[in-house]
Specification:
By secondary structure, the chain is of the alpha+beta class. It has five helices and two strands, in the order αααααββ. The chain is elongated and about 70 Å long.
């Protein structure tokens, strides 16, 4: 019998074990949803870290690319944080085919 199941039985008999049961069942659900394969995997890099790595590779990035590749809805906020951290990032304003303006960011030396 799994720990969560044992605690559920104990919680029925003694309410003292109810909080332990909730914690164990929550952890079991997390593992079931994420899969055991991901249980001890290394943590994912944050969007900010991945975007900074992208810029350090000498590539530029646009808001549409940031959304599609890194899932960052607000690239300008990430750029703001990186600038506050001391990185020198250049903004190049461009126009799309319909005449709307968008920003392209790149890291300067």
């Amino acid at each position: 019998m799994a720990l969560a199941e044992r605690l559920a039985v104990m919680a029925v008999k003694n309410p003292f074990f109810y909080d332990d049961y909730l914690a164990a069942s929550r952890r079991a659900r997390e593992l079931e949803c994420g899969g055991w394969r991901n249980y001890r995997s290394k943590p994912k890099m944050s969007q900010r870290t991945r975007i900074l790595k992208h810029l350090k590779e000498g590539k530029s990035i646009t808001p549409l690319e940031a959304l599609g590749v890194y899932g960052a809805y607000r690239l300008s906020a990430v750029i703001f944080d990186l600038r506050a951290a001391g990185y020198k990032i250049k903004t190049n304003l461009k126009n799309d085919g319909t005449g709307r303006q968008y920003a392209e960011y790149s890291l300067t030396n």
